[in-house]
Amino acid sequence: MSRSVVTTERFSVEDIVADVRTRGDAALAEWSARLDATTWSSPVRAQAYGDVPTAAILEAAHSVRTWHAAQRPADVILEVSAGVTLERRWSPLRSVGLYVPRGLVSSLIMTGVPAQVAGVERIVVCTPPAGAAAVAATAALLGIDEVWALGGAQAIAAMAYGTESIPAVDKIFGPGGGAVNAAKLLVSRDVAIDLPAGPSEVVVVADEGVEQRLIDQELAAQMEHGPDSRAYVVRVGEDVDVALAQVEAYAAEHVALLGERAESLAGRIRNAGAVFVGPYSPVPAGDYATGGNHVLPTGGWARSTGGLGLEDYMKSVTVQRVTKEGLERLAPTIEALAEVEGMPMHKATARR
After folding, report:
1. Contact 169, 96 (CB under 8 A)
2. Is 253 annotated as catalytic?
3. pTM (2 decimals)?
4. What is the pLDDT of residues 100-155, one digit of tens each?
5. 2 has a pLDDT exceeding 80
6. Hey, is 76 helix, strand or coil?
7. Gap between the Cα atoms of 57 and 162, Å rounded
8. Is the dihedral of CA 342, 348, 350, 351 positive or negative?
9. What is the DSSP string of 213-264?
C-alpha cells in the first residue's frame, strides 16, 4: 500500500496515526485539541442532549434492520466426496468500530443497526465533538452505549490500535472525508476495514427531455456533502451502450437513472455502489429511508467492491471432516501435489 499523502495543515494523516499508535490517549488529547479545539486530557464519552427526530430515526432503523436481516448468509454443509465433508459456518465479529461523520445520525443507523442484526458483541462509535450530542442521542435510541466525542484520523487510529481508554476493535466501518478515508486505508494493513468510503459521488444518467429540475436536485444533494464531492451527468442518446460505458467508467458511489432509456440500464450496471431508478427514487431516499445501506464505495472502488451488507459484520469458518476411507482416497492427490511443490512433510500426512 502506498504511503498516505493526505495532509491536514502541516502534518500528514500518517503522522497522526503513528503518534496515536505510539502514545495513545496523550496523542489523542493533543491532536483533538489542535484540530477540534477540545480541552480534555483523555477521551470523553459523547453526551446526548437536544432534540433528535425520534420517529424518523426509529423508522429508518426499522427499514435498515428489515433489509439487512434478510441478507443473513446460510451455513453450508456438504459431503464433497465419499468420506469428505465440508462445513462453512458464519459467526458475527466480536467488536467493531463505527466512524460517524459530524452530526450524520443516518450514518450511525447505517453502520450500527447491521452490527446489531449480525450479533456483534461490542460496538464502538467515534464522532467529531461538534455534532456528537445528536449522534449520542441517536445511539441511545438504538441501544448503543459506547460513543466517543472523537473525530478525524485520530479516531480511526484509536479504534485500530487501541489506547488506554479505547480498546482496539476487530474491524472499522463508516464513511468520512479525505483524511478519515486515508487513515482507514493506512490502518488496513493491521485491522480490517469495511471499504473506502470517501467524498460523495453521483452520476445522473438522463434521457433527453428529462426535467432539468430533477437532474439539478440530484447534483445539488450530493454536492451538499462538501466541496470535494463529485457529480456528473451522462446524457442518453440513440445508443444506450455508449451511456452505459460512461457509467461503468465512472464507477461511482451513486447512479441515478432518469427517463425510460436510462432506466433500461438498471440491470446492466456493474460498476456502482447503488443504483436509483426513476424520478421517484432520489438518492437521498437511500441515504435516509429505504433501508438500503448508504455506506458505499467511492473513488472507483465500485469496480470491485459493493456497499455494506450484513456479511461485512460476520466472518466464515470452514470446518473439514475426513474419514479414514476418505483420506485413503485423497492420498494420491495429496502426495502428487506435495511432490511437485517439494513438500515432503505434507506428503507424509497422506498416510496415517
Report:
1. yes
2. yes
3. 0.91
4. 999 999 999 999 999 999 999 999 999 999 999 999 999 999 999 999 999 999 99
5. no
6. strand
7. 30
8. positive
9. HHHHHHHHHHHTT-TT-EEEEEEE-S-HHHHHHHHHHH-EEEEEEESHHHHT
Pick the catalytic residue from 68, 225, 248, 254.
Answer: 254
Are 313 and 98 in contact by the 8 Å Cβ rule? The answer is: no
Question: What pLDDT does 9 receive?
Answer: 54
Contacting residues for 72 by C-beta, under 8 A, at least 6 apart: 90, 117, 310
**Closest among 157, 163, 147, 164 to 179, alpha carbons compared:** 157
Any idea which architecture 201-303 has in CATH? Answer: 3-Layer(aba) Sandwich (3.40)
CATH class of 7-194: alpha beta
68 is catalytic: no
Residue-level length of the chain: 352
- CATH 3.40.50.1980 maps onto the chain at 7-194, 201-303
The C-alpha atoms of residue 147 and residue 144 are separated, in whole angstroms, by 8
Distance of alpha carbon 18 from alpha carbon 78, whole angstroms? 46
Task: Provide the grid cell at 79.
Answer: 459431503
Query: What does 145-212 look like in DSSP terms, one character per residue?
Result: -EEEE--HHHHHHHHHH--SSS---SEEE----HHHHHHHHHHTTTSEES----S-EEEEEEETT--H
- Name the grid cell of 135: 449522534
Q: What is the mean pLDDT of the chain?
A: 95
* pLDDT score of 187: 98
One of 218, 248, 253, 263 is an active-site residue; which one?
253
Which residues, in sequence order, are CB contacts of 343 under 8 Å at separation 6+? none
Q: Cβ–Cβ contacts within 10 Å for residue 273, how many?
A: 26
Per-residue pLDDT, averaged over 292-297, amounts to: 96
Q: Is the pLDDT of residue 259 over 90?
A: yes
